[in-house]
Amino acid sequence: MIADDDEKWLAAAIAAVKQHAFYMQRAIDSNNLKDALKFSAQMLSELRTSKLSPHKYYELYIRVFNELGTLEIFFKEETGRGCSIAELYELVQHAGNILPRLYLLCTIGSVYIKSKDVTATDILKDLVEMCRAVQHPLRGLFLRSYLAQVTRDKLPSIGSDLEGDGDAHMNALEFVLQNFTEMNKLWVRMQHQGPSREKDKREKERNELRDLVGKNLHVLSQLEGVDLGIYRDTVLPRILEQVVNCKDELAQCYLMDCIIQVFPDDFHLQTLDVLLGACPQLQPSVDIKTVLSGLMERLSNYAASSVEALPNFLQVEAFSKLNYAIGKVVEAQVDLPAAASVTLYLFLLKFTLHVYSDRLDYVDEVLGSCVTQLSATGKLCDDKAAKQIVAFLSAPLEKYNNVVTILKLTNYPRVMEYLDHETNKAMAIIIVQSVLKNNTHIATADEVDALFELAKGLIKDFDGKVDYEIDEEDFQEEQNLVARLVHKLYSDDPEEMSKIIFTVRKHILAGGPKRLPLTIPPLVFSALKLIRRLRGGDENPFGDDASATPKRILQLLSEASTVEVLSDVSAPDLALRLYLQCAQAANDCELETVTYEFFTKAYLLYEEEISDSKAQVTALRLIIGTLQRMRVFNVENRDTLTHKATGYSARLLRKPDQCRAVYECSHLFWADECENLKDGERVVLCLKRAQRIADAVQQMANASRGTSSTGSVALYVELLNKYLYFLEKGNPQVTGDTIQSLAELIRSETKKVESEPFINSTMRYIEFQRQQDGMDEKYEKIKMEWFE
C-alpha cells in the first residue's frame, strides 16, 4: 500500500516538474528572465515534498537536476547579453521558499564563479553557509549534493584558472570539508526520521544514499595542492573527527572504508598511527575487520607494486602500529566474536607475510597475539572461528611452502591447541600434505618431533578417546598420509637418522590400536633402510653409546613395544611378516643371535596368534621362504628352526596344504651357493613324505568318489616338478628312476581323469630337456612312451 502511494506521489511530482519545466523552457526561448525564474522556482518547489521515500526522492531530484542544467546555460547567456551577474545573484534570492531559492543560488553561483567578477572563495563560502538554512535531513542532503556537483569543476585549486591568491586552494579545501561535515550530519540524522518500527527500512534507505556523502572525500583526494602535509595536518584529522563524533555504525564503517579507498597509499602509510588511532573509538557494532582488512590489503598491494616503498614500511614501523591497533580494537570491543578477532589477525598475518616475509619474528608475534586473544575464549566451538584459524595457520604454509620454516615459529603449535579435534586433524592433514607436495626435507630429530606434535591430530586419538564413527576409507587415507610422511624423513647422517627413527617410534606408539597396523610398517621399513645403509661398515663406527648401529636398531624393533604390539591389536599376520623382514636384515648384517630371536618371535606368533587355516598356510610359506635365505645360522640353530618349520607343515589342517608345505620344506636343505647347506638325503626325505601325504589324499578321494580327482593328481605333478628341480640342481639322491616311478604313478592316475594342461606342460618340458646338451644324461632314464 505504501509503495503504491509512493508511486502515485512520485508520478504527480514528476508531472508537475515536467509542466513547470515546459513553461520555464518557453520563457528561456523567449529570453524572459522573470518568467524563467518564476517557473524554475515552481519546479524546484516539488523538491519540498516529505511524502517520498529516499529512493523515489532521488528519481525526482534527477529529473530536476537535468532541467537545472538548461537553466545554468541560460544564466550564462544572459550575462553574455549584458545582464549583471551580481544582479542575477541578488535577484534569485527573492524566491518565496528557501529550498527553491538555495537551488537557484547554487546554479547562479556556479556561473558567478566562472565569470571571475568575484573570487571563487567568497561565493563558495556564501553558498555553503546559506545551505545551513535547510535542516530537513533528506532535502538538505540532496541540496548539498547539488552544491558539490555544480561547484566540483570550479574549485580554486593550484594550477586551475580560478587559483586566485596563494591560499585559494586551502579555501577550496575548507569548502569541501565543511560541506562534507554538514552532509554527514544530515545523513546520520535520517535514522531518526519516522517510527522506530521502520528503523531497518530507514537504514537500508540510508545505505542507498551513502555515495552522496562519499563523493566529497573523492573530491578532496583529487584537489591539486593537497600534499602529505596538508592531508596529515588538516584533511585526515577533520574527517576522522566527524567519523568518530557521529557515533553512527553505518556512517563510521562506510566513511572509514572511503578514506582507505580514495586517498593515496603513501598518505596512509605516513599517517598510519592517526588513522589506526580512530579505530578503537568507533562504535562496537562497526565491522572493524572489514575496515582494517581493506587498509592492510591496500598497503600490501602498495608494497608489492613498488620496491622503493618497502624501506618506508620499516621507517614508519607499520607492523608494530597495526599490531598495536588491532590489540586495542579487540580490547575495546569486549563483545567482539572470536571469529572476528581471528579474522583481524589473519589479515595482519597476510600483510606481514606480504611485506615482511623475511621477518619470522614478526610472523611469530602475530601468532602470539592471536594466542593471547584466544586464551580468553578457550577451545573454539564456533565453526566459523575454527575455519578462520585454519586459514590463519595455512597462510604461512602457503607463503613459505616449507614446513621447516613453520617449525621455527614457537607460537604456531600454541594456536593449534585451541582447535577442536576434527579441525585440528584437518589442519594436521594440510601440514602433512604440504610436506609431501613440496618434497620438504626434514633432516633432524628435533624437527621431526616438532612436526609430529603439529600433526598429532592425525597420529593419536584426541584425549585418549577412540573415534569409532569415522569413515573407514577416510581413516585409511589419513593414515596413509602418515605412512608417506615417515618414508619422507631422511638424514645423510646415520646417527641423526637413528634419532629420527626413535622419535617417530615414540609418537607412533601413542597412536592407539586402530592406527598401529598402518603406521608401524613404515617405521620398521624406514629402520631397515637405515640398517642396509650401515651394513658392511664397522660394527660401531660412532662409539659404544651410539644408536646408529644395525644391532641397536634391530634391538629397538625387537622390543615388545614395537612390532610385537601388533599382535595385541589383532594384526599378528602383519607382525609375523615384519619379524621375518627384520630377520632378513639381521642375517644380512651377520647378527646370528638377533636373527634367531626374530625367528623365535615369528614362531611364537604362528603358534599362539594365527589360528585361521588359510592364514597359517600363508604364514608358513613366508617362514620357509625367509628361512631358506638365511646363511648366518650355525648347524644347531638352523636345524632347530628347520625342524620347527617341517613340524608346522605336517600339522596343517588340510592334507593338500600339508603336502605342499612339506615339499616346500625340501628347499631348507639345499642352497645352491653354499656347499655345507646341501643335504640331498633330507631333500628326498621331505619329498617322499610329501608323496605319502599325496597318496593319502588320493586314497580319500577314491574312497569318497570312487575315482581319482584332478586335485590329487595335481599334487603328484607338483611333486614331479620338485623332483625335476632338484635333479637339475645336481642332487645325487634324486635319480631318473625315482622320477620315472612317480611319472608312472601319474600315468596310471591320469587314465582315470581328464588330462590337465599342467601335466601336459610338465611332460613337454621333460621332452625338451632331454634334447638339450648337458641335460640328456640326467633325463635319459625317464621314459616318455607312456606320455604318448
TrEMBL record:
GO terms for cellular component: cytosol; endosome membrane; Golgi apparatus; multivesicular body; retromer, cargo-selective complex. InterPro entries: ARM-type_fold (IPR016024), Vps35 (IPR005378), Vps35_C (IPR042491). Keywords: Cytoplasm, Endosome, Golgi apparatus, Membrane, Protein transport, Transport. Pfam families: Vps35. Transmembrane segments: none annotated. It is found in: Cytoplasm; Endosome membrane; Golgi apparatus, trans-Golgi network membrane; Prevacuolar compartment membrane. GO terms for biological process: intracellular protein transport; retrograde transport, endosome to Golgi. It is a peripheral membrane protein. Belongs to the VPS35 family. Plays a role in vesicular protein sorting. This is Vacuolar protein sorting-associated protein 35.
